[in-house]
Structure prediction request, 514 residues.
Amino acid sequence: MGKDAFRTRSDCFAEPDKEQQCWAIIRQNSFLSVVLANYKQIVMSNIVGRIAEKTLLKEAFENNKSELIALYGRRRIGKTFLIREYYNKSIVFEVTGLYGGSMKDQLENFTKEAQKRTTNDELKTPNSWLEAFTQLEAYLNSLKGKSKKVVFIDEFPWMATAKSKFLMAFENFWNTYCTKRDDVIVVICGSAASYMVQKIIHNKGGLHNRISRKIRLLPFNLNETELFLIKSGIKYTRYDIIQVYMALGGVPHYLEKLNKGLSVPQNIDALCFSKDGVLNDEFNQLYVSLFDDSERHMKVIRTLAGTNKGLTRNELIGKSGLPSGGDFSLKLKELMESGFVTEYPYYQNKKQLTLYRLSDEYPRFYLKFIEGNKHGGEGTWQRLSNTQSYTSWSGFVFETLCLKHIHQIKKSLRIDAIYSTNSSWFNDNAQVDLLIDRDDNVMNLCEMKFYNAPYTIDKKYYLNLKNKVSELQKETNTRKNVFITMVTTYGVNENEYSKELVQNSLDMDALFVE
Prediction:
């Protein structure tokens, strides 16, 4: 695709009257097929992707009862932006908890927001949360009209200070007031996964079974990342986007810091290795703001970052030095709920062999490259990205990236309509990171390779693949067909080895499927 196509695409977005010209150009350029499929979303909406989440929010808005929505996810993931943008004209009250604030601070902040909405400067700061929610009820009663009214409480956990009885008062507000109405949506949002999971999602008190919709907001996938960059005017190839993703992940706040005038190495240098780079020290702030007793969470993260293939629970306990038991299980669950760690079941669900992998890209990138090179100066990443260490690291991170896009892989293989299970499998002689076990008598043994050109299967790798198939068939006693499926950046070079072994070959475009 030539420069004119890029230039015209930008013109189309900037000048809606050129729409017909825009459509014609888009149709002629396969690279822009994503724009064709998502034209309305990119041009007309500020919210990129988040299809499932927007569907839930839409359903809540259109039904005939009040709804209590719990929204949670890691820091910087776009929770506040999603609610403000989607419900922007329907939010009648919004308050954000103050990190580290006292009960008095939180009540004063709550009252300040109430004063803005009611234009009542004489509204007094209440002495208790019961009194504060009573004021909110009076305000909601004063609003006219039958349309849904959204109450948005952001950073909900920060408001629940010790001995404040905030949660008790909120439970009372929902149970005795909101449930008697049919026009209220209350969205409670928080980054502190430990609180949201224990106190809200699994609440055993007044909110037990009261949450009508739960939204766990995760990072963008590659399709959403590409849409986000297009909307930001950044014209990277898909290979470049994958490199960005392997370093920063699909975290909107990180992606929006990319400068459209810089190459991928220049951007990563500026964000991660310069003295004032916004991601230079993000790792040390990340977990403290999310978790109580974050040192233990960080120990799990550091332990998983030290392995490429994942660890079983017992291996993770042994290597981290953390004591086994309920507290360890809770920490691991909180990390999984926040999207930092992912559980990959072993074939036929042998629980003791389930693998846990660090699935958040930025912490892995930080621990591998940033932590020891913070003051490397300009060009640090350009140098590091040309080392053998990076080549090895990128191969393993690409595998994790593919494991986060199993839906896209299945869709590209046209097997998404066939019932299947995904698992890992390994023994002392072989390891398969992704095994798709299908109901149509086929297993896809998936191999993922990151390379800057079409991948060539040599004799050594050919023998390795044959061994994997042999070991899998022998140990599982499967009678199914085992299809070797290659997922690579630029496809596989055809030679005698690939012709014999490879049944399916997908390139990186498969990972960008919606």
In short: DSSP finds 25 helices and twelve strands in the chain. The CA atoms of residues 61 and 505 lie 43 Å apart. The radius of gyration is 25 Å. Confidence is low (pLDDT under 50) at residues 1-20, 22-28, 30-44.
